[in-house]
């Protein structure tokens, strides 16, 4: 296909493509052509574009298509409106002190998905099928029947059939963790966790006056014999585990280790929070620990790491009805309800299959980014090839706090091991999140800066004195 429209009419802009039937949404084809022309220099800053009606007539498309194309081009900082004078090619925007953020574990942008359109369609379906007054009023925490039905479908890959009465819908996994701590422990109680663990657990435990004690690990995660010893010594109120693509170490605990830990939980009568946000992103992960000790384990799965954090929806599997009610009482003490509109959108997407499609694209993008990290951090990369992050051990001549400061001076943010530490054990490593930078080119630049730093001695980054 020719890149440029065959010009029969000199009034038709030369930068426009020949609109292809199978070339994706037409508004994106127009926006992509406009961007290519700006990059090539055939459209220059300050140049005036046709009005939307003119362009729609020239291309024989409806006005809405051109409006969406111009909106998309403005979102990409390609165009600017000047009121009655019209629409012009924007001058390049200079990002001063732009930070390349590799510190936040968020899903990468789904390449090839028109997320704006997906959002509009999903919300349109919600508003057509729901009682709009109900979307704008109070709801009891825990979710309605349709929300729990969506939760059961979301958990099917992990558990098969799930009884919707055993599910609770929460405004995010962090709220679920906090409510479990409040419901199942008392101030001063011990929570056992791995030496490197999710900072949200540390924050909640500290806020509520609970003590985190680290249990020794190996390359497969928490050691069973050390868990049993800690259970007998400390009589913990809870054990916290993140067994799949663990945050931050990216370890996926093998099935046999999961069975051993479940057996110890049953033998010692200790309850486990299984926080499992990355299971659906992993390549052939083992069954959840909750499959092996269903009465001992509270299972949490969130949409934030597989779809988007903005939905603020997590599902918690709690089998015992009395403990489920205690959990709801604790949850209502600080989160009366999740936002009904976003919960309804999550339910709509799960039940109509949109969530599964979006997650597949996120998984594919995440794996592409791991491949990029493996190439750039050759010899240093320590990832599984999927998930959202890499755990990178630093060479002995760097310590993690020092390296983080040096990276910041190069415009890149990463997370040091200290942010995840449950005890005094010193680990010289950083976590690199691969999804938080939208553009792959900028991600590549950030990883290259880190690779350059890793190859150099710290003394070469001393601060100048003025």
TrEMBL record:
The keyword DNA damage does not apply. Residues 24-92 form the HTH gntR-type domain. The keyword Transcription regulation applies. GO terms for molecular function: DNA binding; DNA-binding transcription factor activity; pyridoxal phosphate binding. InterPro entries: Aminotransferase_I/II_large (IPR004839), HTH_trans_reg/aminotransferase (IPR051446), PyrdxlP-dep_Trfase (IPR015424), PyrdxlP-dep_Trfase_major (IPR015421), PyrdxlP-dep_Trfase_small (IPR015422), Tscrpt_reg_HTH_GntR (IPR000524), WH-like_DNA-bd_sf (IPR036388), WH_DNA-bd_sf (IPR036390). Pfam families: Aminotran_1_2, GntR. Keywords: DNA-binding, Pyridoxal phosphate, Transcription, Transcription regulation. In the C-terminal section; belongs to the class-I pyridoxal-phosphate-dependent aminotransferase family. This is GntR family transcriptional regulator.
């Amino acid at each position: 296909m020719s890149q440029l429209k065959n010009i029969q009419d000199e009034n038709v802009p030369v930068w426009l493509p020949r609109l292809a039937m199978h070339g994706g949404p037409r508004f994106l084809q127009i926006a992509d052509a406009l961007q290519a022309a700006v990059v090539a220099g055939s459209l220059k800053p300050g140049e005036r574009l046709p009005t939307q009606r003119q362009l729609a007539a020239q291309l024989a498309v409806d006005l809405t298509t051109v409006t969406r194309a111009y909106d998309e081009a403005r979102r990409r900082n390609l165009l600017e409106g000047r009121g009655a004078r019209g629409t012009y090619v924007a001058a390049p925007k200079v990002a001063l002190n732009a930070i390349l953020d590799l510190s936040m574990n968020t899903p990468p942008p789904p390449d090839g998905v028109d997320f704006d359109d997906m959002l509009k369609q999903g919300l349109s379906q919600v508003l057509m099928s729901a009682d709009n007054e109900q979307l704008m009023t109070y709801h009891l925490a825990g979710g309605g029947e349709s929300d729990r039905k969506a939760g059961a479908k979301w958990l099917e890959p992990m558990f098969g059939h799930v009884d919707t009465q055993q599910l609770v819908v929460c405004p995010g996994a962090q709220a679920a963790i906090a409510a479990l701590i409040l419901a199942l422990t008392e101030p001063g109680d011990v929570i056992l966790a791995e030496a490197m663990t999710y900072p949200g657990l540390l924050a909640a435990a500290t806020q509520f006056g609970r003590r985190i004690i680290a249990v020794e690990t190996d390359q497969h995660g928490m050691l069973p014999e050390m868990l049993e010893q800690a259970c007998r010594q400390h009589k913990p109120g809870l054990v916290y585990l993140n067994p799949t693509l663990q945050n931050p170490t990216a370890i996926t605990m093998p099935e046999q280790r999961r069975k051993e830990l479940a057996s110890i939980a049953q033998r010692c009568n200790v309850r486990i929070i299984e926080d499992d946000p990355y299971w659906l992103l992993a390549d052939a992960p083992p069954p959840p620990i909750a499959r092996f000790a269903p009465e001992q384990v509270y299972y949490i799965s969130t949409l934030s790491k597989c779809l988007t954090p903005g939905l603020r929806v997590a599902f918690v599997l709690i089998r015992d009805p009395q403990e489920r009610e205690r959990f709801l009482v604790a949850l209502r003490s600080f989160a009366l309800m999740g936002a009904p509109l976003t919960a309804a959108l999550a339910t709509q997407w799960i039940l109509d299959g949109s969530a599964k499609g979006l997650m597949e694209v996120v998984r594919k993008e995440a794996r592409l980014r791991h491949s990029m990290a493996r190439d750039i951090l050759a010899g240093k990369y320590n990832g599984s090839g999927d998930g959202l992050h890499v755990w990178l051990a630093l060479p002995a001549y760097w310590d993690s706090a020092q390296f983080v400061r040096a990276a910041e001076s190069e415009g890149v943010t990463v997370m040091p091991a200290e942010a995840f530490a449950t005890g005094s054990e010193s680990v010289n490593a950083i976590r690199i999140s691969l999804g938080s930078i939208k553009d792959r080119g900028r991600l590549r630049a950030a990883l290259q800066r880190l690779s350059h730093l890793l190859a150099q001695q710290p003394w070469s980054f001393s601060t100048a004195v003025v």
